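Key idea: predict the complex, not the pieces.
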Amino acid sequence: MALVVVAVLLRPWLTGLLRERAFANWSTIFVAIAVQAMPFLVLGVAVSASIAAFVPPGAIARMLPKKPALAVPVACGVGAALPGCECGSVPIAARLIGSGVTPAAALAFLLSAPAINPIVLVSTAVAFPGHPAMVLGRLLASALASIVMGLLWIALGRDDLLTLRRPPVQHAEGERRFAVFVAAAQQDFLQAGGFLVIGAAAAATLQTAVPRSLVDSLATPGPISLVVMGLLAVLIAICSEADAFVAAGLKQFSLTARLAFLVVGPMVDVKLITLQAGTFGPRFAWRFSAATFVVAVASAGLIGWWLL
Amino acid sequence: MVAAVTREVRSTTVLLVGAMLVKLSISGAYARYVRAGMGLWLLVAGILLAGVGLVGVWQALAGHGHDDHHHGHRHNDRIGWLLLAPVLALLLVTPPSLGSFGVSRSTGVTVTSGGKVFTDLRPGGTAAMTLLEFDERAADHDGASFKSVPVKLTGFVSKTRDGAGFQIARFQIACCAADAVAYAVRVTGTAGSPPPRDQWVTVTGTFHPSADGLPELRATGLDEIPAPRDPYE
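Result:
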């Protein structure tokens, strides 16, 4: 009730603010990122809540190879087949870990599901009509990065970093299963959605505040431009289905630098960092994102040097 | 008792987000923020969310449900309140489609014809085209395909004074407004003062090569129009 009163009082002030072009631009981008993520988030939450409610614990873990080093590439392949998006795959990965899948495999899935899937590859082919190697490069570099990250977690990862910030779901039979599904769906949606809103606000702020000329001035040849394009992908946080069109337009950068943009974007960006911090804990999110960034830029550089 | 209240609040939040998505997709206002083809998906997502929210509210009111394991984890759910921010923004002010502020900041694009060679425009009549096609044709053999055929362009005024004339622009989006890319055309030859910034216009005229790379339209007619339903190309 108090919320409604505050809202009504704020309205004239907000309407006045919208006459400021910069604020109108910010609010449009903020709402746009939140709205476009919703269908993908709902799909991801439907899958994650189904895992919680209808799949017996341990069932998915039994379908994967026993050895974690083999489970990682299999999980990466499963991620590539699912038309996911970065926001939706975070709750799914969390539920996978919750149901007993080895974290290394769940993390490989988390990275590969948004980065390589049929929709993303087709949109890349459409955006780069003269460069079919770009599609292959994206596929290989993203697969390489997600498998390396999974193996890196086996070698260096500590499971105590991964604090799953959601209660384990109690398994139930029959009618109770539906109640579990509804509870899990609400929980996953609200948590992922809340962090998505923070990420959308951060991305909208950066897009409104960072002048274009700053980005152009950094388009230097050599490895620096790979890092610059990787950072740009982190900051502007656009959906993996659309980033190829933006990359295609950034013609002042080399093809390899633009490949780095395409490989980093679906794996690390401001909205993903906040989402992961909320789901797995901030200590995990910072380290994992930093490591993923380095691995993604390196594999884009390697594949780009070989193919492009 | 506290858990039951939390559960109601959570369900209501999910219901509100779902209802907002349904409203956006049915009213068509969603086209200001995302690609026009996404309406159906927003509708489906909205109906699913509203359904899950309604079931939750009903369970909480009926006093049964699944709230036993939420104790001690409620602090994590607070983040969900933030979802009300875009809902309130849409209810209270409905942000406009992207306007002139973003033109110079959107991902800058050097238009090339993309390797295509355009067929010549057919003489007689006026050819309506997107700003993107106009810019691409202008880049393709210095606009040879225009053959002095008049064209009609729709966009918003992005700079009211720009050398000899003013600029109109329009955004292209692939997924949502965050990935928007602007295409601009200079309009010259209009009499009187240019229309105000962010005013939507249709301009008819003929292509004219320009020195600075920004394609130019010599206008013969200019009409101010209301913002189109799908403001993006």
